Amino acid sequence: PRKIIIDTDPGQDDAVAILLALASPEDIEVAAITAVAGNVPLELTVRNARIVCELAGRTDVPVHAGCDRPLERAPVTAEHVHGKTGLDGPDLPDPTMPIAEGHGVDAIIDIVRREPAGTVTLCPLGPLTNVARALEKAPDIAGRLQEIVLMGGAYFEVGNITPTAEFNIYADPHAAARVFACGAKITVMPLDVTHKALVTKTRNDAFRALGTPVGVAVAEMTDFFERFDKEKYGSLGAPLHDPCVTAYLIDPEIFSGRFVNVEIETVSELCMGMTVADWWGVSGRAPNATFMGDLDADRFFALLTERLARL
Ligand code: BDR
Ligand code: CA
């Protein structure tokens, strides 16, 4: 299995991404979860990450608290999407497992240095603050990573928090700029992909029909999350953004994309956090990331439902 660190701001879709990883021990070994401020403030994302581990019966996974604010800009949250707790929908008990000792940034550095070079994959599902801080404090880790597989950005789909920016990148554009420039192998799941991973009624019924606490909780999470996209955009269902990252680790053939140059706008207020992806190779700038553009949604949901059934 691939050894991964999940850096996250749960978030219902983060929760499903974590559950998919924990349900797939033959493909994925979760070394740690590091929480970051994003969808909701840090205190809540640390809480939600532990709720999800307990739901999966995996209190052995260390959950560390990371950065509570972006590198330079004021915090931006997304309660309008995820609710006040960040995990609105199911009625899950408060976590009892402890928060792991040590700052999330140090946990990332320690794990990447401790494990053999080229064997740790970093999976950011929220703003990139923890990752950027880790790279700043320990630049050597960039060359030791197997890969960074992250959810963030957009190309044709442009933006969801501003007209030109996706939430994770917008929430800490300076961190994102550093990550995209770090030299590690980077694979990106932008809105172009995640807006095709829609939980339709049939797909949500399949989660509920699992009849397990995990299946029912996931159905209730996506029910809540769905309200936002359906009402506002007339979408078919909730886009499961973050699970695209963990699904990619299990079955990369679900996704297709291009190795392109991606730069992050950090100056213009109008386009702050825009992922400028050179899809047609017109800039002459060297490619630095594989930007996914499409997925096989039926194969994605079949995998997700089959794996969640195990928990
Ligand atoms: C991203 O923003 C968050 O609201 C989701 O959890 C996802 O990581 C989508 O733009
Ligand atoms: Ca997220």
Automatic annotation (TrEMBL):
GO molecular function, a single term: purine nucleosidase activity
Gene3D superfamilies found in the cross-reference section: Ribonucleoside hydrolase-like
A Gene Ontology BP annotation from the UniProt entry: purine nucleoside catabolic process
InterPro entries in the cross-refs: I/U_nuclsd_hydro_CS, Inosine/uridine_hydrolase_dom, IUNH, Ribo_hydro-like
UniProt cross-references to PROSITE patterns, sorted A to Z: IUNH
Top-level taxon of the source organism: Bacteria
Transmembrane segments: none
GO cellular component: cytosol
Keywords: Glycosidase, Hydrolase
The keyword Hydrolase belongs to this UniProt entry's keyword annotation: yes
Domain Inosine/uridine-preferring nucleoside hydrolase intervals: 4-301
Record's protein name: Inosine-uridine preferring nucleoside hydrolase
Organism expressing this protein natively: Roseivivax marinus
